[in-house]
Specification:
The chain has helices spanning 16-26, 49-59, 73-83, 102-110, 154-160, 171-180, 205-221, 223-229, 234-253, 257-260, 262-292; strands at residues 6-12, 36-43, 63-68, 88-91, 97-98, 115-123, 133-134, 150-153, 184-194, 198-199. It is an alpha/beta fold. The protein folds into two domains: 6-199, Alpha-Beta Complex (Spore Coat Polysaccharide Biosynthesis Protein SpsA, Chain A), CATH 3.90.550.10; 205-292, no CATH class. Helix 2 links the parallel strand 2 and strand 3.
């Protein structure tokens, strides 16, 4: 049986140096070169991303580059997968590094199985992790369906219409929720991507408003999924989990930094407190507007 053609979609914006590293890992896959391609979608970068991409395309015909108006990463992902024709569409990010056997793991995970999606294992570089970094670690199946390491059958993406293009948060969960109503999304331990630690961006009111909009839309569009996986009510998710449980867990996980670097730990606590205060300040206005709509 022939191997499936896999199309990898990578959205990017103003990360030329990181993108080079990601593409190097994708072009060094232990998978037949004629059985995969990479579509990079430049979300209106203002650095030298586009010239870099054009040079890479000229050197390797496996890479295609699209340049689109700045509408966010999920809109860019939609542009990418719709521009291709591969049997399977895999998603990763421009700050990730794919294991050399990543595509092989994807092909093996789908082979002979009646599944619509495949979630992979995401690891980080622990030695670079601090309280002030962001990294994604996925060691078991979850319903966040992070787009740094996931693949879908093209037919499934077509059936559900792809990502919600105007969201900046939660659109990966919404896509997974929609696909899971049609068929199974499995998990593959040998489908590995490295998500190196990156400087953490603590959310302000604008970002929390975007996050709240994504969570509310998930509740409205997929109420059964939301109740089962997130909680009984939107406000319960926000006020109990995100305002209290998540930061408490974050604080406890980083307690060793009190000894390793008290200055970093105190800075982390201050940033975390401001972030959660921003959330609590954003909720009343957001909730009021939602009830009026």
């Amino acid at each position: 049986m022939s191997l499936p053609f896999i199309e990898v979609v990578v959205p990017t914006r103003n990360r030329a140096a990181l993108l080079r590293r990601a593409l190097d890992s994708l072009l060094a896959q232990n998978y037949p070169p004629e059985r995969y391609g990479v579509i990079v979608v430049d979300d209106a970068s203002t650095d030298d991303t586009w010239p870099e991409l054009q040079a890479i395309v000229a050197r390797d015909r496996r890479v295609r580059a699209l340049r689109v108006e700045h509408r966010g990463p999920y809109s860019a992902r939609n542009e990418g997968w719709r521009a291709g024709s591969g049997d399977i569409v895999a998603f990763t990010d421009d700050d990730c590094v794919a294991d050399p056997d990543w595509l092989k793991g994807i092909a093996a995970g789908f082979a002979g199985r009646d599944i619509l999606g495949l979630q992979g294992r995401t690891v980080t570089l622990p030695e670079l992790k601090t309280p002030l970094t962001h990294q994604v670690v996925v060691s078991r199946p979850n319903t966040l369906y992070e787009t740094c390491n996931i693949a879908y059958r093209r037919d499934a993406l077509i059936s559900v219409g792809g990502f919600e293009p105007d969201l900046f948060y939660t659109a990966d969960s919404m896509l997974g929720a929609a696909v899971s109503t049609l068929g199974a999304i499995a998990f593959a331990l040998d489908m590995v991507v490295v998500h190196p630690p990156r400087p953490r961006v603590f959310l302000g009111r604008k970002e929390w408003t975007q996050w709240l909009e994504g969570a509310r839309r998930l509740e409205r569009h997929h109420p059964e999924f939301f109740r089962r996986e997130r909680g009984r009510h939107f406000l319960l998710l926000v006020l109990w989990k995100w305002a209290l449980l998540v930061p408490a867990k974050d604080i406890l996980e980083n307690v060793p930094w009190i000894v390793r670097s008290p200055r970093i730990y105190v800075r982390f606590l201050l940033c975390l407190a401001r972030e959660r205060m921003s959330l609590l300040a954003t909720v009343p206005r957001f909730w009021g507007k939602g009830r009026q709509a």
